[in-house]
Amino acid sequence: MDELKYVLLSAIREAGRIIHSNFNGIFRIDHKEGINNLVTEVDQLAEARIIEIIRASFPEHSIIGEESGEYLHESSEYQWVIDPIDGTVNFAHGIPLCCVSIGLLHKGSVTMGAVFNPMMNELFFAEKGKGATLNGQPISVSQKTDFRTAFLVTGFPYKWPENTLEHPVKVFERMVLQGLPIRRLGSAAIDLCWVACGRFDGFWEYNLSAWDVAAGYLIVLEAGGTITDFDGRIGNVFDKQTLATNGHIHHDILSVIRKIEE
User: Fold this and answer.
1) What is the per-residue pLDDT across 73-83, written as a single tens digit (0 to 9) for each?
2) Strands 132-134 and 137-138, how do they pair?
3) What percent of the chain has pLDDT over 90?
4) 64, 127, 158, 261: which has the fewest C-beta neighbours closer than 10 Å?
5) Looking at domain 2-138, what is its CATH homologous superfamily?
6) pTM reported for the whole predicted model
7) Which strands, in side-by-side order, build the sheet including 69-71?
8) CA distance 187 to 211
9) How far apart, in whole angstroms, are the C-alpha atoms of residue 260 and residue 28?
10) Mean of the per-residue pLDDT values for the chain?
């Protein structure tokens, strides 16, 4: 496990260096599915470097990269899930709320994850059963129990869930009408980590991908938080619904979402 951790942290720091050195620079920007779903050449450079570092030590491991796709080895129990820049739109516009996210799954369960924002020099890390840290210091979720004073964060998908085109907006509207302060940072990985360290009390979003949440998923759990889908079921990083909270206000947020669904 020590070697896995070493490779994970080496890869994420190297990708962070690439991102930081190109921040506010000149680079090519392309569009993926949807006009505002961006990818830059820096995303691609960072992901290629991450994969190179992983393969140098673990050539038999499976890899899922947001930009390069899947490299699956059926005989391997390990799977690396990589988002070279979570918050690419922010990065492309010179906003320093973006990060590298790498999660490591063993037999389908996240066992290690790291999220690194090089512009803020914040490295979040968690190993299953060993807690979560920010720059090496232990972190934990908030202890807020009064939902009326909760500080929340959310995001909106580029592609709305099928047959529920208004659903995310209605949930957001209902939260706002209760007078709750809600932020949208533009990076689900950062959102999850900021729940884990107590800056936010809860986060929800629709239609995320595994690379958006794999690392942050474990970091929240190891920081004492709760993650489910919108039916309250414990899920996994491949779910399309993500609700992460400090645990105390989890059912309050679920009740708001369920009222919209009824």
Assistant:
1) 767 899 999 99
2) antiparallel
3) 73
4) 261
5) Fructose-1,6-Bisphosphatase, subunit A, domain 1 (3.30.540.10)
6) 0.92
7) 69-71, 62-65, 78-86, 99-106, 109-117, 122-127, 132-134, 137-138
8) 11
9) 41
10) 90
